[in-house]
Structures are given as C-alpha cells and as structure tokens.
Amino acid sequence: MDLANAGLFGIKNSNRDFTQQSSWGKNQFNSAFPVALLCYFHSKGMECVYLTSQKDGTIKQSSISPSNVLGMKCDDADIYFSFESPLSLYQEVLVGRPPAIDLVVAKKDKTEKTKRFAVWKSN
Question: What is the average pLDDT across 8-36?
Fold first, then answer.
C-alpha cells in the first residue's frame, strides 16, 4: 500500500500523520473515521442524525450540522484535530498530567479549543 498520499477526507491539520502506517491501527482509525465522515457530510451539505433521550424515556430524532458537532466548519483553514491528546481544560486543578481524550477540536494555533470528545464502550 502506498502511504505517500494517504489520508482521511477533510483531515488536513492534525497531530496524526496518515502517511505513517502507525496511524492506521484500529484505535487510531476508530477516532479519526467519524471526523472524516463529518467532513464529508459537510462537503455535501448533509446533516447528521441527532438522537436525544427525553425525560419520559423516549428518543427524539432530529438533525445537526457537522459544524455544530465540531464547533467549527470542517473546511475552515484554521481547524485542527488533536487526537488522543491531553485534556488541559482542568489542568489547574489536577496534580500530574491530564488524561488523554479521543479528540480535541481547536484552532490551528491551539489558542481556542472548540469541542472535546471521548468515546466510551460499554460491555
């Protein structure tokens, strides 16, 4: 497989180098693919299905734009995807290094973090 031009749709500014084979492991792909899918939806003007649980136990289905999910437009030149990075939001109250989180969406200069995501799998 030629990795020289490897990448995922829309992920241009990132701490993950998709030309490296190590960026294509299961855990790396599981956090990067949903971002690429959001970027693809954005490029096609598509909305995402958004499910919320209601107080009465029912599930409400609506839609949400990829930009609202990420906090920035996917094609914004300043968007930066930081995968499995420390969540520094609470650094001032932590002793030691903050835990890593699946995805932090920030401006490229990393001065403003717009969204943070963690994915949990229940058994």
Answer: 89
Distance of CA 61 to the CA centre of its chain: 22
Three-state DSSP class for 59? Answer: strand
Q: What is the identity of the amino acid at 18?
A: F
For the chain, the structural domain boundaries read 21-117
Whether the predicted pLDDT of 117 surpasses 80:
no
> In whole angstroms, what is the distance from residue 66 CA to residue 101 CA?
20
Spatial neighbors of 48 by CB under 8 A, at least 6 apart, are: 38, 41, 63, 64, 65, 66, 69
Of 50, 41, 46, 37, give the one whose Cα is nearest residue 8.
37
pTM for the full model?
0.79
- The DSSP H or E segment spanning 36 is helix 26-43
φ, ψ dihedrals at 85, nearest 5°: -110, 155
Task: Tell me if residue 70 falls in helix, strand or coil.
Answer: helix
Pairwise CA distance, residues 103 & 81, whole Å: 7
